[in-house]
Amino acid sequence: MYLKLVATLLIASSTIFSATAKAECSSELSMPKSNICVEIQWNYGPYLNQYNEAIVTLNALQSDQEIKAQKISIFPWMVMPNHQHGSRPVLIQKLGDHEYKVEKIYFMGGMMGYWLIKVQNLNSDNTLFEEVSYRVNF
Ligand SMILES: [Cu+2]
Predict the structure, then answer these.
(1) 75 C-alpha to center of ligand 1: Å?
(2) Ligand 1 centroid to 121 CA: how many Å?
Protein backbone atom coordinates (compact mmCIF):
# COMPACT_ATOMS: atom_id res chain seq x y z
CA MET A 1 0.00 0.00 0.00
CA TYR A 2 2.80 2.42 0.96
CA LEU A 3 4.90 1.47 -2.12
CA LYS A 4 1.96 1.96 -4.41
CA LEU A 5 1.46 5.46 -3.06
CA VAL A 6 5.16 6.37 -3.60
CA ALA A 7 5.02 5.10 -7.18
CA THR A 8 1.93 7.17 -7.89
CA LEU A 9 3.61 10.27 -6.46
CA LEU A 10 6.70 9.71 -8.63
CA ILE A 11 4.65 9.46 -11.79
CA ALA A 12 2.68 12.55 -10.84
CA SER A 13 5.79 14.62 -10.14
CA SER A 14 7.56 13.61 -13.37
CA THR A 15 4.47 14.57 -15.36
CA ILE A 16 4.41 17.96 -13.68
CA PHE A 17 8.14 18.39 -14.37
CA SER A 18 7.91 17.77 -18.11
CA ALA A 19 4.85 19.99 -18.43
CA THR A 20 6.74 22.79 -16.69
CA ALA A 21 9.85 22.29 -18.83
CA LYS A 22 7.80 22.67 -22.01
CA ALA A 23 5.94 25.72 -20.77
CA GLU A 24 9.21 27.47 -19.90
CA CYS A 25 10.39 27.55 -23.51
CA SER A 26 8.84 30.58 -25.17
CA SER A 27 7.62 30.14 -28.75
CA GLU A 28 10.30 32.49 -30.09
CA LEU A 29 12.96 30.17 -28.70
CA SER A 30 11.50 26.76 -29.47
CA MET A 31 12.09 24.54 -32.51
CA PRO A 32 9.56 21.71 -32.16
CA LYS A 33 10.70 19.73 -35.25
CA SER A 34 14.27 19.71 -33.91
CA ASN A 35 13.20 19.18 -30.28
CA ILE A 36 15.25 22.24 -29.33
CA CYS A 37 14.73 25.02 -26.85
CA VAL A 38 17.33 27.74 -27.39
CA GLU A 39 18.85 29.48 -24.40
CA ILE A 40 20.76 32.73 -24.93
CA GLN A 41 22.94 34.14 -22.16
CA TRP A 42 24.77 37.40 -22.76
CA ASN A 43 28.39 37.47 -21.66
CA TYR A 44 28.53 41.05 -22.88
CA GLY A 45 25.67 43.22 -24.03
CA PRO A 46 23.43 43.46 -25.86
CA TYR A 47 24.52 46.97 -26.85
CA LEU A 48 24.19 48.90 -30.10
CA ASN A 49 27.34 49.75 -32.09
CA GLN A 50 29.53 47.41 -30.08
CA TYR A 51 30.70 43.83 -30.35
CA ASN A 52 28.57 41.66 -28.09
CA GLU A 53 29.14 38.13 -26.87
CA ALA A 54 26.66 35.40 -25.95
CA ILE A 55 26.53 31.75 -25.00
CA VAL A 56 23.88 29.85 -26.93
CA THR A 57 22.78 26.52 -25.49
CA LEU A 58 20.40 24.07 -27.11
CA ASN A 59 18.30 22.15 -24.62
CA ALA A 60 15.86 19.34 -25.34
CA LEU A 61 12.28 20.57 -25.58
CA GLN A 62 11.08 17.08 -24.63
CA SER A 63 13.67 15.87 -22.16
CA ASP A 64 13.06 12.19 -22.97
CA GLN A 65 13.89 12.69 -26.66
CA GLU A 66 17.09 13.43 -28.61
CA ILE A 67 17.93 16.88 -29.94
CA LYS A 68 18.02 16.89 -33.75
CA ALA A 69 20.81 19.43 -34.22
CA GLN A 70 22.50 19.14 -37.58
CA LYS A 71 24.33 22.29 -38.65
CA ILE A 72 23.67 25.22 -36.35
CA SER A 73 23.97 28.75 -37.66
CA ILE A 74 23.64 31.79 -35.37
CA PHE A 75 23.66 35.41 -36.59
CA PRO A 76 22.16 38.87 -36.01
CA TRP A 77 19.38 39.94 -38.35
CA MET A 78 17.61 43.26 -38.68
CA VAL A 79 14.00 43.75 -39.72
CA MET A 80 13.27 47.18 -41.20
CA PRO A 81 10.02 48.56 -42.67
CA ASN A 82 10.97 47.74 -46.27
CA HIS A 83 13.81 45.23 -46.11
CA GLN A 84 15.84 42.97 -43.85
CA HIS A 85 19.57 42.57 -43.53
CA GLY A 86 22.38 40.98 -41.57
CA SER A 87 25.45 42.42 -39.92
CA ARG A 88 29.18 41.81 -39.73
CA PRO A 89 30.14 38.13 -39.50
CA VAL A 90 30.12 36.54 -36.06
CA LEU A 91 32.70 34.16 -34.62
CA ILE A 92 31.26 30.89 -33.37
CA GLN A 93 33.17 28.52 -31.15
CA LYS A 94 31.67 25.17 -30.16
CA LEU A 95 32.08 24.72 -26.41
CA GLY A 96 30.23 21.45 -26.01
CA ASP A 97 27.84 19.11 -27.74
CA HIS A 98 25.08 21.70 -27.87
CA GLU A 99 26.78 24.81 -26.58
CA TYR A 100 28.21 27.68 -28.62
CA LYS A 101 30.14 30.81 -27.78
CA VAL A 102 29.17 33.55 -30.23
CA GLU A 103 31.52 36.53 -30.45
CA LYS A 104 31.50 39.68 -32.56
CA ILE A 105 27.71 40.05 -32.57
CA TYR A 106 27.32 43.57 -33.93
CA PHE A 107 24.05 45.53 -33.89
CA MET A 108 24.19 48.71 -35.94
CA GLY A 109 22.18 51.54 -34.37
CA GLY A 110 20.38 54.52 -35.82
CA MET A 111 18.00 52.61 -38.06
CA MET A 112 14.23 52.19 -38.12
CA GLY A 113 13.51 48.63 -37.16
CA TYR A 114 14.55 45.95 -34.70
CA TRP A 115 17.28 43.35 -34.29
CA LEU A 116 16.86 39.62 -33.99
CA ILE A 117 19.21 36.79 -33.20
CA LYS A 118 18.46 34.04 -35.71
CA VAL A 119 19.28 30.46 -34.79
CA GLN A 120 19.00 28.09 -37.73
CA ASN A 121 19.17 24.33 -37.81
CA LEU A 122 20.34 23.40 -41.32
CA ASN A 123 20.25 20.13 -43.24
CA SER A 124 23.55 18.67 -44.41
CA ASP A 125 23.03 20.35 -47.82
CA ASN A 126 22.67 23.74 -46.03
CA THR A 127 18.94 24.06 -46.72
CA LEU A 128 16.87 25.26 -43.79
CA PHE A 129 15.41 22.61 -41.50
CA GLU A 130 14.07 24.93 -38.81
CA GLU A 131 14.79 28.35 -37.34
CA VAL A 132 13.86 30.67 -34.51
CA SER A 133 14.09 34.43 -34.36
CA TYR A 134 14.77 35.91 -30.96
CA ARG A 135 13.97 39.60 -30.56
CA VAL A 136 16.81 41.56 -28.94
CA ASN A 137 15.80 44.30 -26.52
CA PHE A 138 18.28 47.05 -25.78
CU1 LIG B 1 18.82 48.23 -40.64
Answers:
(1) 14
(2) 24
